[in-house]
Design goal:
With 253 residues, this protein is of the alpha/beta class. The chain is built from 8 helices and 9 strands. Helix 2 packs across helix 6. The structure holds S-adenosylmethionine.
Amino acid sequence: MPDEGQPRDEGRVHGIDAEGIDTDEWNELMRHLEATIPVYDRVNSIVTLGQDSRWRRHVAKSAQPGMKVLEVGCGPGSFAEGLAEVELTCLDPSTAMLAVAKKRVEAARSSRSEPPASYVEATAESLPFEDDSFDRVFCLFSFRDFHDKKKGLKEMLRVLKPGGRLVICDAGKGRFPHGLLGRLWMATVVQLVARRVTKNPDHPWKWLAKTYVHFGTIPFYRKMMRDVGYENVRGRLLLPFLMAGKLTGTKPQ
Ligand SMILES: C[S@@+](CC[C@H](N)C(=O)[O-])C[C@H]1O[C@@H](n2cnc3c(N)ncnc32)[C@H](O)[C@@H]1O
């Protein structure tokens, strides 16, 4: 949890914006994220037209066997369970998410005869690891939820080994009109699907759409990554439907 009352940055507007989410809103967001657990994968698969598992497989290719890998914001383990042949650490601030992830990831790892992963309860903004610890840091569909995005990016850079790479994959937001289309999709299709699957008019995706509305564009985060010290920064929307975006950057040698 972020420190109560701690400002994200001097002179910020409070609430949610492209740079982060203030404490009260973040706590509220976490309650809604935890409420998605039972139907998380099902809703994601429908609203991304089945593309979410393709994106996860694509991103996983960035890790090679034997690497030390950290997933920040592992949620219920949807990405981590498919990360094979790596020394894996799953991190999330939610006890409930980590409990589900552990069950799921360990089942997958033992079916591949791999040793257990590590599970750490913490936030991206305060990573409990030594400098230069990981070859890869992955962040799938969690960067949008960070309390303080610049601080999270700096922490992930700190724990990467020199030459190591950060890979972020999240809901894609290009410049206008792409961002507008994304907002329309979130406000209509996603809401209808979530309502249908959860059978609850007060489903958590109502609140989650807020984080997309305030999420920055890919060019905005490319600049933020360069500003905090990443090299070889790249960012693009993923084909074929441009619904997700991928950002990558490396730690200088
Ligand atoms: C939508 S889930 C993503 C799950 C998974 N990575 C996937 O591939 O679908 C977002 C996760 O980000 C976590 N999260 C929210 N704020 C975070 C922060 N400041 N640092 C790290 N993780 C955070 C949430 O607890 C939640 O489990």
